[in-house]
Amino acid sequence: MAIIKKISEMQAWSKIQKKQDQTICLVPTMGYFHKGHLSLIEKSKELYDKTVVSIFVNPTQFGENEDLDSYPTALEKDLDKADKLNADAVFLPTKDEIYKKNYQTYVELEKLPHHLCGVSRPVHFKGVATIVTKLFNIVDPDAAVFGQKDFQQLQVIRQMTKDMNFNIKIIGAPIIRETDGLAMSSRNTYLTLEQRKSSLCLSQSIEKVKKMISLGETDSDTILRKIDAFIKGFKGTKIDYTALCDPETLDSIEKIKGQTLFALAVTIGKTRLIDNTVIEPFDGAR
Ligand code: AMP
User: Fold this and answer.
1) What is the arithmetic mean of pLDDT over 122-131?
2) CB of 267 within 8 A of CB of 246?
3) How far is CA 286 from CA 123, 256, 281, in A?
4) Cβ of 198 less than 6 Å from ligand 1
5) Is 37 annotated as catalytic?
6) C-alpha to C-alpha distance for 223 and 242, rounded to whole angstroms
7) Nearest-CA neighbor of 220 among 266, 278, 260?
8) What's the 106 CA to ligand 1 centre distance in angstroms?
9) What confidence tens digit (pLDDT) does each residue in 193-240 have?
10) Which tens digit of pLDDT belongs to each residue from 146-172?
11) Residue 40 Cα to ligand 1 middle (Å)
12) Distance (Å, rounded) from C-alpha 106 to C-alpha 125?
């Protein structure tokens, strides 16, 4: 497995693969791998000739009071895990390599970032769209895999790819969960034992919403009021948002008629956790 730190070396590596008619798939990450990350690498290996995993804790997607400085890292372990899955290259740039002196260009979407996580994280998706654009230009992949765990991020990247005419296939991969339902996340490591118990409010909210909709409830306000009360019953939780919306535009839905995204963000102690699911209502609910 190649370990590449310089942009010029990454570009040269990809050029060689292309000359040999090898397809390339990119898996962008911030490291501290769990099974969710590994599932993306596996998906890439399954579908493409060469897999490039990038590990970069991107400073521009963190707000001022967020966890950039404390974001967990485990580089040696990550490299070992990527190697065991036969990733072909790991791109491991420094912050100075990516954002050179006098850096001043950003990619910003007009609508999608004003929903869900973007409300409390106003600079986040600008940072995400910018780093992914740069990675696309550096690695020049045929495809890239992203987790549905970060549903809004996936939509932002799909839209940005289309708008910017990148000829890159965007693949969404399912959410990998712990056995008790908690969606895997590098940030789960911040949770104390007690907070870990409260963290189950997210996946359990998803089950509750699915149930309410399957029983014919179509009024979003009614559903969200019940869910907010349910979450408040867990110790130390603070709701950032709970939302029922159109999976494509992320606009709120008042009456549930068709495919609906339920998404939520809850802060437990200092840790902000997110989860989501796309619900297909039963005929009875239409
Ligand atoms: P991160 O390192 O948190 O930036 O995540 C890198 C990629 O892994 C993103 O595409 C995430 O959506 C994806 N990811 C994170 N957690 C999970 C999970 N539990 N299941 C599937 N994909 C995930």
Assistant:
1) 98
2) no
3) 37, 7, 7
4) no
5) yes
6) 10
7) 260
8) 23
9) 999 999 999 999 999 999 999 999 999 999 999 999 999 999 999 999
10) 999 999 999 999 999 999 999 999 999
11) 8
12) 10
Q: Which of 37, 114, 115, 124 is catalytic?
A: 37
Distance CA(145)–CA(169), nearest Å, equals: 9
Ligand 1 closest atom vs CA 184: 19
Per DSSP, the three-state class of 169 is strand
Cβ–Cβ under 8 Å, residues 43 and 81? no
Residue with CA at minimum distance from ligand 1 atom 19: 184
Say yes or no to pLDDT of 285 above 50. no
Selected residue with higher pLDDT from 281 and 127 = 127
Residue 286 has pLDDT above 90, yes or no: no
Tokens of 247: 């999976």
The rounded Å distance from CA 147 to ligand 1 centre is: 5
Ligand 1 atom with the smallest distance to the CA of 31 is 2
Average pLDDT of 104-127?
A: 98
- Here the tokens at position 17 are 């693969």
Nearest to 277 by CA among 254, 249, 243: 243
For residue 274, give the amino acid letter: I
Q: What residue type is 21 in one-letter code?
A: D
Q: Are 202 and 180 in contact, with CB atoms under 8 Å apart?
A: no
The answer to whether 86 and 48 have CB atoms below 8 angstroms apart is no
What is Dmax (Cα atoms) for the chain? 59
Burial of 70 (0-12, 13-18, 19+ CB in 10 A): exposed
Whole-model pTM? 0.97
User: Quick one: pLDDT at residue 270?
Assistant: 95
